[in-house]
Amino acid sequence: MPAVPGVPEPSGAPFVGGHEAEVRKLEQSHLVFMLPACGAREQDYFALRIFAECLGGGMSSRLFQEAREKRGLAYNIDAYSDTYADHGALGIYAGCAAKDAVETAKVCAEQLLALARRIEPAELARAKAQLKAHMFMAREQPLSRAEQAAGQVLLFDRLYPTAELAYEVDAVTPADIVRLGQRLLDGRRCATAVLGAKGALKAGPAFEKALFSAA
Fold first, then answer.
1. DSSP 3-state assignment of 192?
2. What is the separation, in whole angstroms, between the first and last Cα of the chain?
3. HSE (side-chain half, CA atoms, 13 Å) at 40
4. CB atoms < 10 A from the CB of 87, how many?
5. 1 pLDDT higher than 80
6. pTM score, two decimals?
7. What is the pLDDT of residue 47?
């Protein structure tokens, strides 16, 4: 579209934070915790993708192993990153029994804090391999390939070759992960949402307290 004179550039999206909760008669409660992160055009973009992969990107991730396999708290748990041109967020989702919601929230905060402080080289290498596999396997589907291309053109005005994407992922260091982790915690803000039985409604404040009282 042609540029329109006199139209101001939109300001960056602010991350306000806060807690929302709603009682519903459900078999399990649904928890979402989010922290402000970097946008897609920032240096830490690939570090954020890897951070989310380590935290909750699959069966080998910290959240899956601790909350589901070891403690049996959550039926489903994962972490993800949402990134846009000017802003981004790290998110955690968990589905659990209402009686386990607060404990699940505390485990999420504990694992996030631990990852923000230290990551072992082997864990970082595994997360890089998983992220590259997800990115490149998606390119086998025509629709996913088209969506990736459209997103790259809209955000960066160009297409990213596969080799360049792989290089950017491999270039992330343990220090990058720790720096990003500190950035996630520095703002001392989070947004939480809880949907489920009354006993789960305190999970949002419990996550915030566990995360920032120890940070």
1. strand
2. 46
3. 12
4. 17
5. no
6. 0.92
7. 97
Q: Please, what are the domains in the chain?
A: 18-119+173-213 (3.30.830.10)
CB contact at 8 A, 91 and 33: yes
**How do residues 14-35 score in pLDDT, each as one tens digit?**
899 999 999 999 999 999 999 9
Q: Which of 52, 199, 197 is nearest to 116 (CA)?
A: 52
Sequence-ordered list of residues with C-beta below 8 angstroms from that of 75, at least 6 positions apart, any chain:
28, 68, 95, 96
47: number of Cβ within 10 Å: 26
Distance CA 89, CA 62 (A): 19
C-alpha to C-alpha distance for 104 and 68, rounded to whole angstroms:
9
Long-range CB pairs of 13-19, under 8 A, 24+ apart, other chains included: 13/84, 13/86, 13/87, 15/87, 15/89, 15/187, 15/189, 15/191, 16/189, 16/191, 17/189, 17/190, 17/191, 18/191, 18/192, 19/191, 19/192, 19/193, 19/194, 19/204, 19/205, 19/208
Amino acid 139 reads: R
Which parts of 21-80 fold into alpha helices (H)?
45-56, 62-63
For residue 112, which amino acid is it? L
Query: Nearest to residue 103, comparing CAs of 18, 210, 189, 212?
Result: 210
Query: What is the average pLDDT across 48-64?
Result: 96
